[in-house]
Amino acid sequence: MDLATRHLGPPRRGLEIGASAVNPFPGLRAWNLDYPAGELFQAAQEHLPGGPVPVHVYGLGAPLPLRSSSVDYVLTSHVLEHMPDTITALGEWDRVVVDGGTIFLIVPHKQRTFDAPRPRTELAHHLADHALGMTIEASPMAPTSHYHVWITEDVLALIAHLNQVGFLDWALLAVEDVDSKVGNGFTIVARKRSRPKPRPAPTGDEVAFFFLTLELPFQVPGRTLEYVVQGPEFAAPADLPRGRYRAVPILAGFPPRAGTAFTVEHGPAAEVPVIDSVQRHDALLVFRGQHLAATTWLEIGLPDGRRAQLLPELEDGALTVDTTGLVVPPVPVAVTPVNPPPGGGRGPTHELRAHLPD
User: Fold this and answer.
1) pLDDT tens digits for 303-325?
2) What's the pTM value of the predicted model, to 2 decimals?
3) Which secondary structure element, helix H or strand E, spans residue 12, and what is its range?
């Protein structure tokens, strides 16, 4: 008997968030909740045996449109990483499960997915997201991204912390460092012992840490742009990329609270960036020039008049853009490099005529 059937099988009735024909859980009695605008996800399942999984409940993964203590379990597979506020999501999934019910999580493992180059998300990052009430719209990351990146121990540590502060009351039933479903994630199965008792809100003003977010006028896919500075006194870390940041003090205690945000301009004043040449290597576009940095971003002027922005990777002094999976526009395309403050500004526009295919 597989792990899901053993812990969630009939006669129990539960909720699966974002069920997919790509990775089904046969034999379970579960309503499927999906996002109201999830037509693309449904269409991607049309060619699979049996077609798309029916949607029984339309809603977000948090908040859930269900009564408290209304289901025997909540099942999620590769969903938690799409929640901009992980703590709120776990609290919502806990809320709708009966006492003695089960929370079943399969989460992508950093080392076995495309998240491998990104830093692991630390506990303080989750606390800051919760203090700020992070939403899809407010996040610096595009909603197609994984907001957070974990290995098994990271989520176990988060659950242990939330148990310790009384936000959850879970007992671990099973842990798989390599999930037995597909193998690119890890599995955590927990029993909800009881509904946590309300705790008095903290009243002190002691700063636990500062949460920094690189200020950009657009959302960025697949990149971690937030940084944690521990301690009550702010000092920018030496490895912080230059640029303008929104810094928020996060106060000690639970639930975490956000103090008054302020702006930090870090690093030496930059010159205006200049693109001298562009080369194409398979799907990779390489922009070489002057005064290019890790926070230099590009504004793309498309032939139809629309504009798009992107933040390239910096490799060996050049900006690189991986166009795999992107719709490459026809030439000519106008590319304007921009360096954020301090200093910086918009550089001269470089027109691509021969580097992109017609």
Assistant:
1) 788 889 999 999 999 999 988 87
2) 0.92
3) none
Give CA–CA dist 325/322, Å, rounded.
9
CA distance 141 to 311: 11
Question: With 0-12 CB in 10 A as exposed, 13-18 as middle and 19+ as buried, what is 242?
Answer: buried
Helix (H) or strand (E) holding 76: strand 71-77
Local structure of residue 114 (DSSP, 8 states): T
pLDDT above 90 (res 144): no
Query: What would the two tokens of residue 214 be?
Result: 């690189």
Report in angstroms the alpha-carbon separations of 273 from 45, 225, 305.
Answer: 44, 21, 23
Residues for the chain: how many in total?
A: 358
Give the span between the Cα atoms of 199 and 211, in whole angstroms: 25
DSSP tag of 321 = E
The CA distance from 245 to 243, in Å, is 6
Tens digit of each residue's pLDDT (9 = 90 or more) over 178-219? 999 999 999 999 999 998 887 888 888 999 999 999 999 999
Say how far apart CA 157 and CA 230 lie, in whole Å.
Answer: 18
Residue 64 CA to residue 133 CA, distance in Å, equals 16
Q: What is the pLDDT of residue 358?
A: 36
Six-digit token string for 201? 């809100």
Residues ≥6 apart with Cβ < 8 Å to 346: 272, 299, 336, 337, 338
